[in-house]
Amino acid sequence: MLAQRSTDVCLDRWLVRRRHHPILATDERFRFHEGRSDRWRTLARRVAVARSWGDCYGYILVATGRAELMADDRLSPWDVAPLLPIVAEAGGVFTDWEGRADTMGGDGLASNAVLAEPLRSALGVPTDRLSVR
To answer: Against a cut of 0.85, is the pTM above it?
Structure first.
């Protein structure tokens, strides 16, 4: 409960500073992890835009500052390998759903650095391994 409150406070401060709700992108299938789907829908109800931009495009939206989060429930290493350095060099954070900066986990999340912890907390992703520059 406390993590959710701190997430709300951080997200609310971001919303005031940005003067709009975050934009979230996903492939939105979450076929293999129903809990992820439930947490995604809960988070998506709090934002202005939550839509399905699959694969590379959603990550590029995060890297270029046009979206705050991209989430994929299932990724192949060859699809995601170039995205970790691209997102990181753009000042963002790329992790798998276990919170590791890894492209071999079979899934992925990319976000801007400011919202890396609160967005991952809202999605149930461990944040103790996050490395935010």
So the answer is: no
